[in-house]
Write a structure and sequence with these properties.
- The structure is a single chain.
- By secondary structure, the chain is α/β, with parallel strands linked by helices.
- It folds into two domains: 123 residues, Enolase-like, N-terminal domain (Enolase-like, domain 1, 2-Layer Sandwich); 268 residues, Enolase-like C-terminal domain (TIM Barrel), CATH 3.20.20.120.
- Helix content is 40%, strand content 16%.
- It contains 13 helices and 14 strands.
- A nine-stranded mixed β-sheet has the order 4-14-13-12-11-10-7-6-5.
- Strand 13, helix 12 and strand 14 form a beta-alpha-beta unit.
- The protein is globular.
- The two termini are 29 Å apart.
């Protein structure tokens, strides 16, 4: 048994230059650190990310309060606990907060300790973190093979992640599952570079957005789809054979007064007409995944679109479900979607995130373990995805260090699981 001997947190910067929290958990023979990402496009039902709201520091984005909560409240409370009893450590912190959305001590405070403790426990046992997550998941009653998930790469950024001229948040490419992970990553990376050339040929801006994808000055969302299709051909691949398409529509960016207002059309759609529009998109582009197609509160319309498209498309709930067991159970009961985006910082602890994944798998929901737009260079989310046997991962484009470190971590794990020593 390894006991927790010290917990220390500090303020660092994320990939957008905003403060976030990094915590180190120490045990007798070592320590591990974990840092917490932050989203710009957030569901209103997510667990609370505690910010200082002091306009004199980082324009109110500081996290000194969250750091203090770790160093003065949560950390001292778990010193002496068994590092390898992850569930007891997490339950202790959840109970100390005592709120449903972690508004007292902060989901960022709790998760920083929870993830660092998991990483430290794997070090103490001299096993990779993905194997420790797999053990935790099995202990919880989950069933998962240690596999490398299929990546969903965000190659063109729109919405809140782009420059504002594209409505949809993410235009994605997904390698065929018959390709092994290194081959799939190679194919998607080549397409990514081909997109830059296509944009340059069209005299379009090819600046990089928050998640590493291009943020071009295209006129419509369909223009972005056509750029990607052209790039797939230019890179020597075949659409719907080697590479598939996905979208994260994230309508909170353009949903106003109960209407969907996109630049592609002059009419402001109600939900039913927007579903018809999405159906036409699918008919044209044969989408493999469709994340947050509708506003998060329109549950009955989610049921409708899943009934209409769910046999052909993975309908992924992100803002709808916010990695929350209660919301996931509602979606299961109502058939509001058939897949879930899993973001640990939406709920705030390893235990709760594992529980959500187990519930999803128990009901044959596809799982997509995801980064956030404001990321750090911590790769632990890649180990988590492998350990729980996630179907997909979403780490952004194959660009920017905070994204690439996670894809590279999956490369390392893929070689390790094949018996290749590094």
């Amino acid at each position: 048994m390894s006991k927790i001997t010290k917990v220390y947190a500090r303020e660092i910067l994320d990939s957008r230059g905003n403060p976030t929290i990094e915590t180190a958990v120490y045990y007798q023979n070592g320590f591990a650190t974990a840092s917490v990402p932050s989203g710009s496009s957030t569901g209103k039902y997510e667990a609370v990310e505690l910010r200082d709201n002091d306009p004199k520091r980082f324009m109110g984005m500081g996290v000194k309060t969250a750091v203090d909560n770790v160093n003065k409240i949560l950390g001292p409370a778990i010193i002496g606990m068994d590092l390898e009893d992850q569930f007891a450590v997490d339950k202790k912190m959840i109970d100390m907060d005592g709120t449903e959305n972690k508004s007292k001590l902060g989901a960022n405070s709790i998760l920083s300790i929870s993830m660092a403790a998991a990483k430290a426990a794997s070090y103490a046992q001299k096993i990779p973190p993905y194997l420790w997550f797999n053990k935790l998941f099995t202990t919880l009653g989950g069933k998962a093979k240690v596999i490398i998930p299929t990546p969903i790469l965000n190659v063109i950024n729109g919405g809140k992640h782009g420059t504002g001229n594209l409505d949809f948040q993410e235009f994605q490419i997904i390698p065929a599952s018959i390709k092994n992970y290194p081959e799939g990553l190679k194919a998607c990376t080549e397409v990514y570079h081909a997109i830059a050339k296509v944009l340059e040929y069209r005299n379009a801006i090819h600046a990089i957005g928050d998640e590493g994808g291009f943020a071009p000055n295209l006129y419509t969302n369909l223009d972005a789809m056509e750029v990607i299709i052209q790039a797939i051909k230019e890179a020597g691949y075949t659409l719907q054979k080697d590479i598939f398409l996905g979208l994260d529509i994230a309508p909170a960016f353009f949903y106003k007064s109960g209407r969907y207002q996109i630049k592609d059309v002059t009419e402001h759609y109600d939900a039913d007409k927007f579903i018809d529009y999405i159906q036409k998109l699918h008919d044209s582009y044969h989408l493999l995944t469709l994340e947050d197609p509708l506003f998060e509160d329109e549950w009955d319309k989610w049921v409708k679109i899943t009934k209409q498209l769910g046999s052909e498309v993975h309908i992924i709930g992100d803002d709808l479900l916010v990695t929350n067991q209660k919301k996931l159970q509602r979606a299961i009961d109502s058939k509001a979607c058939n897949a879930i985006l899993v973001k640990p910082n939406q709920i705030g602890s390893v235990l709760e995130t594992l529980s959500v994944v187990k519930l999803a798998k128990d009901h044959s929901f596809k799982t997509v373990v995801s980064h956030r737009s404001g990321e750090t260079d911590d790769y632990i989310i890649a180990d988590f995805a492998v350990g729980v046997g996630s179907d997909f991962v979403k780490f952004g484009a194959p660009a920017r260090g905070e994204r690439v470190v996670k894809y590279n971590r999956l490369l390392t794990i893929s070689y390790e699981t094949q018996g290749v020593l590094l």
